[in-house]
Amino acid sequence: MKSLDRLDVNLERPTINLEINRVGIINIHIPIFSMRIGDYSALAIARVSAFINLPPDIKGIHASRNYESIMDVFLSHIGREMRIEEFCCHIAKDLLRRHDYASSSEVKMKCLIIFPQETPRTGRVSYEKSYLLGRAIAVKEDNHNAFIIRKGVGVEVVGITACPSAQRTLLAEVMRMSKDDNIRRILTNDKIPKATHIQRTYARVFLEFKNDYKLNALSLIKIARGSMSSQTYELLKREDEAQVILNALNNPMFTEDVVRKIAKRLIEEFPNLPNDTIIKIFVRSLESIHQHDLVAKLYITAKRLKDYL
Questions:
Q1: Which of 77, 140, 179, 184 has the fewest CB atoms within 10 Å around its CB?
Q2: CB-based contacts of 212: which residues, under 8 Å, 6+ apart?
């Protein structure tokens, strides 16, 4: 009988022969490192998940190899700047080298980044947070060399939206109640901000494309933050606070408006985006006068989006 230390239970045949698409480990945190977003180098804390497919005749994966892939790639790039999608690509390739029984791998990464922004009126520096998202899928060719077929990069940001429906309804109601012609003239002046409810709004934008395309993640952050009624800031002096509110009231938007604006700006910012790029936009409004939230989603190829616009 073989000694226990020579037995590899993972490679035994399972009782049920069924391939599993993805098996792996999730939520592995790696220390702070330098992440490249456009022309800016951000310090980031990353959370990584790594998967492979499991053939029908293999009982279980060697999970420690997934962890080793993540850490070895990380350690080999200490002190070097790297795009989040490229980091995912390196891990995805390494997974297939370590798991010779697997034919495909997938790696996902989410990084909290901190970057400086100027406040709208006083020009003070405010350090804002966003999330960078990365993804890579690798497959194994007949000669067992791994190659990346798809990779993706995305962002998660926060801003505010002002409701256009409540704004118009409230204006009509105040106009109906007012008997003073001067007040009515003021209310109909387009330069005067109109009251409405304002809510915090989250946007996630993710683009998935072939390995040979590079995308500026900082541009994605700017597009998403700039597509709402107003951006938000950690630091706001009184003048800045007033400007943020005025910006929102003068730019009322539905959640659907935010999705459409992000989509349009993506094509304007990246006119050479490959037609087979998959674009995913998700916007969630934390409604201030309801207990429910409002959500809008768009999944579309770049080709179809260009045809619309």
A1: 179
A2: none
